TrEMBL record:
Lineage: Eukaryota, Metazoa, Ecdysozoa, Arthropoda, Hexapoda
Keyword Repeat found: yes
InterPro entries listed in its UniProt record: BRCT_dom (IPR001357), BRCT_dom_sf (IPR036420)
Coiled-coil spans in chain: none
Keywords noted in UniProt: Repeat
Annotated protein name in UniProt: AGAP001710-PA-like protein
UniProt cross-references to Gene3D superfamilies, sorted A to Z: BRCT domain
GO biological process, one term: mitotic DNA replication checkpoint signaling
Residue intervals of the BRCT domain: 17-103, 104-194
Transferase among keywords: no
Length: 202
């Protein structure tokens, strides 16, 4: 079954948080949190502080201050995490590891923004986890900021829309992601276009 990425990745309204999930978390926020993230934290019993001392986590929203991250790590020795850590924790039903959600990433996909289409539920979740773990960002919709559309097959409205974007959006198969990770480098995209899958099957 194919899944709309919106429901798998970005639809925060459908997430149910345990009322004590964040009860042992005392956080300081830098930047601006999405209101839905704030609600998840509060519903999970978080304590929010206006001061960093005695906090357990620094949570980074949009336009966060890198100086806060440095201070949290060097002065207070507390982990800094992105909003994605909150979502991952809610999905897991326990606090996720903080290492994968450090905001100052230098991963292989850092600076790249992905969207996906024609990929089933389990593979889409795995793809989201791999791309964000290695520094990329993921959007439920193809938009002007999208750099790569990962396609399971050469069809569908998102694929058709990406074709009209010219060189603005690179269209690749999931194999491109896997091969980039294997080589620890960004591979050329031309040989990973999903239309080649169709040609190989002929």
């Amino acid at each position: 079954m194919s899944l709309d990425p919106t429901s798998a990745v970005s639809n925060l309204e459908s997430l149910q948080v345990k009322d004590d999930l964040f009860k042992n978390v005392k956080c300081f926020v830098t930047g601006t949190l999405d209101p839905k993230i704030t609600k998840l934290l509060k519903d999970g019993g978080v304590s929010m502080s206006k001061f960093m001392d005695f906090c357990s986590h620094l949570i980074c929203g949009a336009n966060y201050d890198e100086n806060d991250i440095t201070e949290a790590g060097e002065l207070y020795e507390i982990p800094s995490v992105t909003e994605a850590w909150v979502v991952a924790s809610v999905r897991l039903g326990r606090l996720a590891s903080t290492k994968a959600y450090f905001p100052l990433k230098t991963g292989i996909f850092c600076g790249l923004r992905f969207s996906a289409t024609q990929i089933d539920t389990r593979d889409l979740r795995r793809l989201y986890a791999v791309l964000t773990f290695h520094g990329g960002t993921f959007s439920s919709r193809l938009d002007r900021k999208t750099t790569h559309l990962v396609c399971g097959s050469a069809r569908g409205p998102a694929y058709s829309k990406a074709l009209t974007c010219g060189t603005g959006v690179h269209i690749v198969t999931p194999d491109w992601v896997a091969d980039c990770l294997k080589s620890s480098s960004i591979k050329p995209v031309a040989v990973y276009h999903p239309r080649l899958l169709r040609e190989q099957r002929r």
